[in-house]
Specification:
The chain is of the alpha+beta class and 114 residues long. It has a single domain, classed as Orthogonal Bundle (Arc Repressor Mutant, subunit A). 38% of the residues lie in helices and 23% in strands. The protein contains 3 helices and 6 strands; from the N terminus they run E-E-E-E-H-H-H-E-E. The strands form 3 sheets. It has a two-stranded antiparallel sheet. Strands 3-4 form a two-stranded antiparallel sheet. Helix 1 crosses helix 2, helix 1 packs across helix 3 and helix 2 packs across helix 3. The longest helix has 17 residues. The radius of gyration is 19 Å and the shape is globular.
Length: 114
Amino acid sequence: MRLHASRNPGGIYTRVASSADMEEKILTLHPEGRKGVNISRAKYETLRKTILGVLKKRELTHNELTSAVERALKGRFEGSIPWYMECTKLDLEARKLIERVQGETHAVYRIRRK
């Protein structure tokens, strides 16, 4: 959390936290053990639900998944949907909720089978 100095009428400085800094973050995982990224938990949850919802219907290539998620969130999401989708997709792979498998011509993503 970043603190910003502000001067009150008496000339004394106080620390004020920015509301944007109060947002809860999540450190994503990477399926290859690489370092993840810190993203907003709210954005992560939105993308997680959307990705899992789209993949419940059928297996999708990376491009199909990206397009489906963009269509689902268009106008309702602030930020780069493809970037957040990629971070969240990798996290879901690392947590073994989805998997990447070889399809007929391209790799496809699907809900992980138990």
